[in-house]
Design a protein that fits this description.
The chain is built from two helices and 14 strands. The protein has 210 residues and is mostly beta strands. An eight-stranded antiparallel beta sheet has the order 6-7-3-2-1-4-5-8. It has a six-stranded antiparallel barrel with strand order 9-10-11-14-13-12. The chain is elongated. The two termini are 24 Å apart.
């Protein structure tokens, strides 16, 4: 459930502060979590934390635990049985589309990305680096040579890829599950037309083979 080198999202209780960490070691009884040194300073022995690890399917694992010990750049927690949470999704279709994104409000240039699937409610987007859950991003997707849509989206989860894929500006090593929070009706219509053009009925696009 929690494996070495996997990304986990950390919520510190009761402040609600959010961090991103990496599982460095597990012996079946404890997890060693590494995170940026300046961020790990917020965590002390006895701190209650919520660890979330997204699954490649429709759910995630949630572990509520208490920090047992701290070390430079990380901490150790006891590993108990995590809770599995199922999430419903909008019907989606697979695709391979160029995209650009940046965190909302960021003054920097938009970064290149690829879209792995898309629905009327969101998209899976491959990016170069991790983003914490609940981050809002400005997103542009090129549906065709003539059609481009724009949306504001929220990061639902972030997963590292076992094998990074090539992007226009380097390797894309993470998959973001994004939920559209602001999108024009005309852009939704363009997505709907794109999905229909893939010869997959929208009503059935989310069904899995039995």
């Amino acid at each position: 459930m929690f494996k070495v080198r996997e990304t986990v999202e950390i919520t510190i209780k009761p402040s609600g502060a959010r961090l991103v960490g990496i599982v460095r070691h597990t012996d079946g009884h404890h997890l060693l979590i590494a995170c940026a040194q300046e961020e790990s300073s917020q965590i002390q022995p006895g701190t209650q934390v919520e660890l979330v690890k997204a699954c490649e399917g429709d759910g995630l694992y949630l572990l509520m635990t208490t920090v047992a010990a701290c070390f430079q750049g990380g901490f150790r927690v006891p590993l108990t049985t995590p809770q599995y949470i199922q999430r419903r999704r909008q019907p989606r279709v697979p695709c391979d589309l160029p995209a650009r994104y940046r965190p909302q409000g960021s003054p920097g240039k938009m970064k290149t990305a690829r879209v792995g699937n898309i629905s009327l409610g969101g998209a899976k987007v491959y990016v170069g680096g991790p983003l914490p859950t609940d981050t809002f991003v400005e997103l542009e997707i090129q549906l065709s040579a003539e059609e481009r849509i724009g949306a504001t989206a929220q990061v639902v989860r972030c997963l590292p890829l076992e094998a990074p894929i090539s992007g226009e500006s380097g390797e894309l090593a993470y998959a973001l599950a994004l939920k559209f929070t602001e999108i024009a009706r005309v852009d939704q219509m363009l997505i709907q037309r794109f999905m229909q053009a893939q010869s997959i009925p929208i009503e059935a696009a989310g069904r899995r083979p039995r």
